[in-house]
Amino acid sequence: MTALAISFDDVKKAQERIAPAAHRTPVLTSTTADELTGAKLFFKCENFQRMGAFKFRGGYNSLAQLTPEQKKNGVVAFSSGNHAQAVALSAKILGMPAVIIMPQDAPAAKVAATRGYGAEVVTYDRYSEDREVISRKLAEERGLTLIPPYDHAHVMAGQGTAVLELIEDAGPMDLVLTPLGGGGLLSGCAVAAKALAPSCRVYGVEPEAGNDGQRSFRTGSIVKIDTPKTIADGAQTQFLGKLTFPIIQETVTDILTATDAELIQTMRFFAERMKMVVEPTGCLAAAAVFNKRVDIAGKRVGIVLSGGNMDIAQFGSFLSTGI
Ligand SMILES: *Cc1c(COP(=O)(O)O)cnc(C)c1O
After folding, report:
1. Interstrand relation of 201-207 and 254-258 (parallel, antiparallel or unpaired)
2. Which of 115, 181, 248, 291 could disulfide-pair with 237, CB 3.0 to 4.6 Å?
3. Quick check: pTM over 0.90?
4. How far is CA 254 from the centre of its chain?
């Protein structure tokens, strides 16, 4: 058996590395949520992280470890979502150039936010061009370092700091749940949770329409699916990573799912009761808990709210009409 990609020590080192730049986000509680579920819930609010999602943790942890030569040449990432902004902002803070590859039809607000962090945005036609080919070509031509969104040890260790902080600040948990896309967040957080509290059960939650992670976990090999149709755009990944999957197999208790309708109900709960904007993907773990996908009666439950970035008109329309 090959060694796992990261250890708890990597997560602790990541925490020291990102501390000067990342926010230590609050852990919030809600009496209403506790009454609804019969448990004690602790929400780790990464919707309040810099650039609005936990992805800043992994992005900054990766960029901070590049060699002076790599820093001088800069980095490249392909994403139209939170990873793009995480890499762009980290590069700006660390004073290095960043190129972000985005589809031509990416939302104007996301393109503007990424440019606002000082990154160069290169667009491609997602129906006729392959973004990986474009990034690799650019990386070669300009000597850029490619920063993957989840399947990289430095990214995974950085994401794990979310649950390290949650347990440091709120105490040991019986269960921890995180949203699941490619598994960077879940694998890093599971390593932290297991090291701090070995009996803690860890769950990943993905959109019901794209349950490749659940199928992979239950069959024991990585299942690939077509891009799923879901409002949880941060978890529209088609497969788990080669590095994240073995850690998930080793440390996670199960993978659960939530439907889009449940995500909207959960967004509404956070807006109404806790006065927070949590994006659909950020609601996955909470939605599984609110809809009793796992037995939590009387337990202390850590829930990662992974991000809060979304178009505010869209947010309003989800809350008012449910679509
Ligand atoms: C990227 C993202 C996820 C999924 O993270 P993975 O590391 O790919 O599993 C979950 N929530 C939000 C808000 C994200 O941006």
Report:
1. parallel
2. 181
3. yes
4. 18
